[in-house]
Amino acid sequence: xxxxxxxxxxxxxxxxxxxxxxxxxxxxxxxxxxxxxxxxxxxxxxxxxxxxxxxxxxxxxxxxxxxxxxxxxxxxxxxxxxxxxxxxxxxxxxxxxxxxxxxxxxxxxxxxxxxxxxxxxxxxxxxxxxxxxxxxxxxxxxxxxxxxxxxxxxxxxxxxxxxxxxxxxxxxxxxxxxxxxxxxxxxxxxxxxxxxxxxxxxxxxxxxxxxxxxxxxxxxxxxxxxxxxxxxxxxxxxxxxxxxxxxxxxxxxxxxxxxxxxxxxxxxxxxxxxxxxxxxxxxxxxxxxxxxxxxxxxxxxxxxxxxxxxxxxxxxxxxxxxxxxxxxxxxxxxxxxxxxxxxxxxxxxxxxxxxxxxxxxxxxxxxxxxxxxxxxxxxxxxxxxxxxxxxxxxxxxxxxxxxxxxxxxxxxxxxxxxxxxxxxxxxxxxxxxxxxxxxxxxxxxxxxxxxxxxxxxxxxxxxxxxxxxxxxxxxx
Length: 476
Prior knowledge:
Helices cover about 50% and strands about 15% of the residues. By secondary structure, it is an alpha/beta fold. It has a six-stranded antiparallel sheet. The protein is elongated and about 80 Å long. Pfam families: Ferric_reduct (PF01794), NAD_binding_1 (PF00175).
């Protein structure tokens, strides 16, 4: 493993070689994809309600028992549909992922998941109360009768418990206590929970069986969900990784606790990666290879090699320093909308904090630009922590961009992107001092969650349009 730091002249020579190689065109992402996929999701929920009405759901509301039971059926049906939509959101379907980006998909995934989970328990409660109101067994007798007498109910309860475990560990306070690897393993039980609920719905759910339309609708929804996971979450990454091998070419220490890894091979040619995007990486070097970790590319893809730079924040990232050249690599992706295809203005501001500067370095190298079009703001606590600073400074000089290294500890008691010595300025004022015409820029942001929130709020206050602020969150 080499630990040398690239000199500016080496960086420029490498950059010149990359520019001579053919690159994929930065085709804008069609905006109608977002509207189309969002409409499809709402259409599924509308279809669920329409089938419930068609099956007499409204007529059953006339009695107290019917009101509880029919409302319970509806909440259960909507919860099931949301559960499937939740899986599809994170199935890495290219059109969905490119339309929304992983950041917004992850937030929507959480919202849909908690809503589905809440409706699931409302369904259980209302159905139990509804049947108990029309039965001499009472609440507990009815509950026991459900479990032992109805096909698939034991599996449904097991699936519900699996979903409880996933939801509990998805609460922010619980997530902070878990390593990424542990959280990721537990989260996989969500697929098990969804699968265990299916037999109960198909064996005892009249809404699934009483009409051809309902049967086609629900089987189609389940089939589409399973196909999305098998094709895009499993099949496509495996085909890409196994069709043509990708191997580690170089491992380089960029500083204390930071490592760059360069990979290459025929498989890289088949990956439509853009600067600013990230991939899920697995290295077949021993224990831990089954867990994927997300890392952004830190150099513009050239069709022959890919490079990422990561800080050692867990077991997965710490073992990067021990990788050996020749190690086989499995990848998923690319993912994310923080690339040149979403650019709407000629001028661009690239803002990165800490290790979040890595996708900005790649964007600086790849974005088509004229002198003065691109400004890079690199936020660090100290110059010693400025990862890839020499490379960025050299690239900026070569491409006519401006590079600002902003050093210093955060402002106490204030959510801000600024260092302590700039506390006399508001966040928006500081941005406007850097770029008075900021409103005519696209703003790309990467860093910790709080820092990105502060940058986004400041950019909006300074006049930047909401759809011109591009960021990607990696918090799990």
